[in-house]
Amino acid sequence: MDVNDMVMVSVDDHLIEPPDLFHGHIPDRYRDVAPKVVRKDSGADVWVFNGQTIPNVGLNAVAGRPKEEYGIEPTAFDEMRPGCWDHDERIKDMDAGGVLGSMCFPSFPGFSGRVFSAADDKDMALAVLRAYNDWHVDEWCGSHPGRFIPMGLPVLWDARLAADEVRRLAAKGVHSVTFTENPKELGYPSFHDPSWDPLWAACSDTGTVLSIHLGSSGRLAVTAPDAPIDVMITLQPMNICMAAADLLWSRIPKHFPDIRIALSEGGTGWIPYFLDRLDRTYDMHHLWTGQDFGDRLPSDVFRQHFLTCFIADPVGVQLRGMIGIDNIAWECDYPHSDSSWPSAPEELHEVATAAAVPDDELAKICHENAMRWYSYDPFAHRAKADCTVGALRAAAGDHDVAVRSYDKGRFEISRAGADLGRLAEQATA
Amino acid sequence: MDVNDMVMVSVDDHLIEPPDLFHGHIPDRYRDVAPKVVRKDSGADVWVFNGQTIPNVGLNAVAGRPKEEYGIEPTAFDEMRPGCWDHDERIKDMDAGGVLGSMCFPSFPGFSGRVFSAADDKDMALAVLRAYNDWHVDEWCGSHPGRFIPMGLPVLWDARLAADEVRRLAAKGVHSVTFTENPKELGYPSFHDPSWDPLWAACSDTGTVLSIHLGSSGRLAVTAPDAPIDVMITLQPMNICMAAADLLWSRIPKHFPDIRIALSEGGTGWIPYFLDRLDRTYDMHHLWTGQDFGDRLPSDVFRQHFLTCFIADPVGVQLRGMIGIDNIAWECDYPHSDSSWPSAPEELHEVATAAAVPDDELAKICHENAMRWYSYDPFAHRAKADCTVGALRAAAGDHDVAVRSYDKGRFEISRAGADLGRLAEQATA
């Protein structure tokens, strides 16, 4: 397949919340306490909420920078491409990058909205969370019908409220809710606690996928405070296998046969080994541990319930048959440093060509699996011929995607430090 | 290759320390304080040392039991096959299992001897550790020349003493020293601290491999206290990738070009993804993180310094070319529950046949890589024709390897509980 004929739907990108997000969505009585952007004397923009300051407004939003200037920056809106926080500009960047559809994870609230859930005033927390979800669905996604896969933030502190919110969002056409890799790490009941059942039931009933992003447990893969940051970068995608094992062996797939879970930004090359390990563990141990999947193997259960994704994983593409060709989706990870935007289609095309992936399998990876798992139909809004990489780039015209250097002076502290202690503190704050 | 013609050398097995281990090895002045086996009223045998009781003398030493009776048992010597703790019986079990050579990790001291290193009286700790090493080399291995790959326990609290012990052992023909996945987790300096340099220098000078066993950080892969134990069993081998990343990006391979590290019981199916992740991390990030491997890629560095191993990993065998055929060894894991003893050769043969592994590559996996990495030459003691699976089994005669049920009543507490909290406590005690 020619790269220009590919149709690209990304199941993992990120948005940086714009400062005016809550305007028009938060009830008047909570307007003063809703999250706000404050510019610090240092020039950094930070979100302030519930007595907490969330630093690094644009954590790792480095799209368009030279690699020398990657880092956990930027810390201010004017250090990022506008496509990070402005939906009209995002669409231009998607067009120029050949990306038809995108599901965007949150930034400052944490991947599973833990910043909102931490507020003591739960009525206020729920109002803030709903305002966020309404903004995401109605403005971010609603402004460009068919271009975004809408996704809600979950209520972490009350499974019945969480179920209500999933059903409320489903009525608005939402089929994805973010969740954490491990609720226990965030101070909530574990995946093994039946108290979550109302949420799993709501997801099952509404065809809503639990989209679990790596790093959403709040625990970073840090080996030692003096370890180079490369260690954490390497390990981060491998950590999500803890969540996969935790969920696979839990009561959830046994009690909720329709539950579906996406391992967002989790990569795929480790899955064949993981599936073999699951089946071997079952074979060797289930007689004394008491696990019982009836006439199925754990790997069958995995393929029924889990969607995986990758950016451009040569090992995963080669082993796609061992993973399950219906269980693999593509992601762009815009605007983070792992992304190859704006040439991500070429990167995947190269990997797929090297592995001799047939066109029908490549179509599943590029968009068909994402569409089916997330009940997402972009072609209802735009003829398929206008959705290809080539067509979108033609529409983008001369939109500027040049790599551009930023003011490096402002990045010195965190870049030079590679300060894992501070990073870990932020991640778990 | 016929299974009877294979020559099997296992780079990861386990011994259960016999009660009389320290007799004749510990100096008289420490005889009263050396570790001792005590039989509790419950019938359990425990080691007592330094005011600490180490439970589960035979942690997971379940060889020869039916799978229904697997568990973290047994807790007493009479619940185990004598081959677990008696070297003559071990040789019979190896013969019957078709295994020529074996490297045996310790049990009650912890994989890296942390129980000894925790003693406040460091002179005594050193005497105990040296007595253990002398017993291991002179008695366990020395009783049957050419049948065991000797391995020392490290001094964790002082890198110069650790280096001295490595050199002392090397003079006795030892080319392996166990180490921990993460010294920082045990309260010592991390892999990134130059204070360890004398030890790395001693290993480099003497051709001693750092054999790092999974689980040796004292940290179990536990997601939640109420998680089924299957989660931990599944995840345990994947955790060693943290150690691999920590070491790969550390200063050690840069400063010690001859250092060699074995990822014991680490499996192999995850390695291709890991190597790709290393190279991608380097490509995307080294310009700002400052990593510099000159004209090599991180995957080249890995293949130069790291030995991997597996029990019977279909994914790893299929992907052996992406791992490095000179970097893969076989392990039996006797007497633990992951082992397929006494039919482990058949298990590997089946996997190798399915993957159409050529004879020369199978020989590397079965014994040649282990011999080269560990400077181990069994053929100096026995003609190669007498070392095959078939020849060893013929020599074993009618040695009893029947699967046999044990008294289940005594296992109820830990088997029924799958009590991860208690298990984690034991692991880190």
Q: Which terms summarize this structure?
A:
11% strand, five-stranded parallel beta sheet, alpha/beta, 429 residues, 38% helix, homodimer, three-stranded antiparallel beta sheet, 10 strands
Radius of gyration of chain A equals 21 Å
Assign an overall shape of chain A.
globular
Spatial strand order of the main sheet of chain A: 6-7-8-9-10
Strand content of chain A: 5-15%
Distance between the termini of chain A: 46 Å
Largest interface: A-B, 65 and 64 residues
The number of distinct helices of chain A, counting runs of at least 4 residues, comes to 17
- The poorly predicted ranges of chain A are 408-429
Question: How would you describe what is shown here?
Answer:
The structure is a homodimer of 429-residue chains. With 429 residues, chain A is an alpha/beta fold. In chain A, 38% of the residues lie in helices and 11% in strands. Chain A has helices at residues 87-97, 114-117, 122-141, 159-171, 197-206, 229-235, 240-248, 252-255, 271-289, 298-305, 314-318, 320-323, 344-354, 359-373, 389-396, 412-417, 420-428, and strands at 8-14, 36-39, 45-49, 52-54, 99-105, 176-179, 209-213, 261-264, 306-310, 328-330. Chain A starts with 7 loop residues before the first strand and ends with a helix. The model of chain A is unreliable at 408-429 (pLDDT under 50). Chains A and B meet through helix 6, helix 7, helix 9 and helix 11 of A and helix 6, helix 7, helix 9 and helix 11 of B.
